[in-house]
Amino acid sequence: MSTRLITHTDCLYHDTSPGHPECSDRLRAVLKALDTEEFSGLQREEAPLASEEQILRVHSKELIANVQGATALAAREGHVRIDADTIVSEGSYTAALRAAGGVCAGVDAVMAGEAGNVFCAVRPPGHHAEPGVSMGFCLFNNIAIGAQHARAEHGVSRVAVVDFDVHHGNGTQAAFEADGELFYVSLHQSPLYPGTGDAHETGVGNIVNIPLAAGSGSAQLRQSVEGVVIPALRAFAPELLMISAGFDGHKADPLAGLNYETQDYFWVTDILLDLADEICEGRVVSGLEGGYNLVDLAESAAAHTRALLRHG
Description:
Layout: E1 3-7, H1 24-33, E2 43-46, H2 52-56, H3 61-77, E3 80-81, E4 87-88, H4 92-111, E5 117-120, H5 142-154, E6 159-163, H6 170-176, E7 182-189, E8 207-212, H7 217-236, E9 240-245, H8 262-279, E10 284-288, H9 294-311
């Protein structure tokens, strides 16, 4: 068993326009950090294109058509805004298919026993994309699509997602909140975009939101994970654990202020993998979400991958 890295150069051709924080250089920085001797043991795989069937398990046909249409228009006009924050270019639809397809391929790898765990270094990110609306830099909800793929293609009944991106994953919550066999736990700064994720939002008992005040830092993260996240996951007992790996809680990130340290991302990944070893045969699939300071994004993603390799 080992750790697999799934990515694709098509993800670099989702051009969000000059000055946009969710830029191609984010992925370049992550891949450069993982292209060193320390990470030579990673299995490497190109992300396939997601099928329409896979995307339709989470999203409406209208959403798919909207992304296709905006991308086609961008091929003529250069850039098209889906909303104030979400911009597409000629390469965006293909990039989004690679991002969702990469997470599905990661699920295939761990369920087949070909890899112990997987990091999907893909973009655009996904956790803000709701079943009917692309938003917040996100076109398709990669993690939610992967969770439904596990159920449809591998007979997995219980999937949990842990989201430590600094922003609440409203899209994942919306996709999961009525289904008691899907579990979502989010640690996020509040108040902050998108304004969801209050502790009282519990779905059918399958949603755990942990809103954290700006400046909370490492100690609050670790207390919340050990005191709330781990017991909740153990009680749910998933067959597959997925991670929305956003690194924008870092103290250097320009878009938020939770003040995490780089080492926190090793720690939180490591403790989640310890639990996965205990309850779901170590099956973990992680997908890149946010993180907008290029240096610290790269270092944090490397710390995350270091922990994955420790368990892979």
